[in-house]
Task: structure prediction
Amino acid sequence: MSKACLVTGSSGLIGSEVAAFFHERGFGVHGVDNNQREAFFGPQGNTRWNQERLQRTLAGFTHHEVDIRDRAAVLELVQTLQPAVIIHTAAQPSHDLAARIPFDDFDVNATGTLNLLEAARRHCPESPFIHMSTNKVYGDRPNTIALQERETRWDYADPQFAQGIPESFSIDQSKHSLFGASKVAADVMVQEYGRYFGLPTCCLRGGCLTGPNHAGVELHGFLSYLVKCNLEGREYRIYGYQGKQVRDNIHSVDVAGFMFEFYQAPRAGEVYNLGGGKDNSCSIREAFAMAEACTGRKQVHTYVEQARSGDHICYYSDLRKMRAHYPRWQLTRSLPRIFEEIVAAWQQRIPARSLEMRVLLTGICGFVGSTLARGLREGWPDWEILGLDNFARAGSETNRRALRGLGVRLFHGDVRVPSDLETLPRCDWIIEAAANPSVLAGVDGRTSSRQLLEHNLVGTINVLELQKQWRCGFTLLSTSRVYSIRALAAIPVDAQGDRFVPRADTPISGFGARGVTEEFSAEPPLSLYGSSKRASELLACEYAESFNLPVFILRCGVLAGAGQFGRIDQGIFSYWIHSYCRRRPLKYIGFDGAGRQVRDCLHARDLLPLITQQIAGPHAAESRVLNVSGGLGQSASLRQLSAWCAQRFGEHPVAAEPRNRPFDVPWLVLDSGRAAQVWGWKPQTSLEAIWTEIAQHAETNADWLEATAD
Result:
């Protein structure tokens, strides 16, 4: 059983970074967050997206909807978890807001900290308690240090502070703001529980904490907000001191790294000034220059003569005590690299969200289409989302009602019928998700070969003609089944435990240690389904070249997630988990009936970061066709899936049918290296998280397979 790490404020910048850091080191992470930031700052402060990201991407993460002001709830949680370490990052962080809500500010920052400390003393007194404090506990006293004015910055004239502000610097006789005062109360209480009760506690008096996941605003998040203004051409306001005021900056991953060092060798009642130090310090003027060097854009700014009350003229942390106590800890992110990461992060977020876009999703009421529509509505609320669907599949009506509730405009139509497309409003981008997705389509007796080709090929032709008319962008969701069945079947595999494993150093073109690449053979046979999608790919590329249109083709592995219309021939992970949960008959088909055949798994929503980046980014032909899949790290056999189901639902027999199904192959995992290299894309949702999501859906939707059966 893994050790428990309790993180308060887990949906914030530092809390979420800490959660990921400790999760990577084998901890079961328990996050405490109640989205109080939204109550403080309104909708722009909502952190639910980050909570959901942690729940998707960290298999060992558990969210607890607890307010740290609720003493009974805090005591009960700590008693239940007995965490090996408590990391307290939750806070009310605003000076201005504290003056308007002094009771709430103190209750969160001071009383909430006391609740956690007392819970730790009662139930896990040997577990390190790490408190995220602030350099604002020093108030405006740093401004009393003699300064010297340089060309681009202020700096300390007193040699005593050549390395920055040490922990011995006085917090008395200064103006703190009510926020600073409530943090002083918490800071001193953390020290006292260490010194009086002997608890292993520390206060980390943070400087400017930053990183690529920081969503900076004008009053909070200095570097992040400055870079955002630069990229958007927005005016940045300098308040006083000629823009020469100085801050040190530390990456959130280095904050988490120090916390881990303290956990490994804790001390009682310690205080550390946690920042980037002199080497990672910069003035606003210097930050302008670094941002301009990274983006190639001039920083637009204005100057306000009146400085902010209590603002530090110069502050950077003296790191010598930290380094003396923990010599293994080092800053891993230099200031130039911090800028590069923040710029890259905002470049991915700003262009897509700032464009006024109208996006058409075909097949919108299917699993993939509806998942993408929900994600676009959540992440890109200013975009107008339109959808076309013929509502032929069972289960599509359920998505129809839900999407309408989200404000998605739905049109009843069929991509096979050109006249159904003629009345659609012009869109800026089309995502083609309408298809018959079964590898057995056209030969299974359920659909004819003509119907399959009309769905998958003729439908694509009609949509490409619409793209040509609108002069818009186009994303075709394709499939791993465009690769040659004969070539896939020729990949030599060995049975190792519960799965097939390809033999090492197999000399097959387009095949490597991470799976099948885009260069793998696409020679027939592919199946009628695979051929219809391959023909659609070729036509899409020809339209792109002939008419100079932006086109992207995403070859997906097995897509999965809650709400999928699972069948034995399509949506296998969802079908298997639902069937296992409901004790329906299951059968290993082919390959001696042992269930060792392997597929990779990707959540459909993980396509969104790539699709939206392509919408916003350059339309490079060399990156037009991409494998997009879970990859080797998110692959599993049916036998492994059954073992997982048995642990969750209890044992359930699975029959065996040794004879192979048509078009089946023992091992198919895609290598998405090109998508990673060109676009920086990677899966966000772990295999464990996908299976858990489907299982939870199965447990609460007993009739799902019947309700969505065609």
Remarks:
- The mean pLDDT is 91.
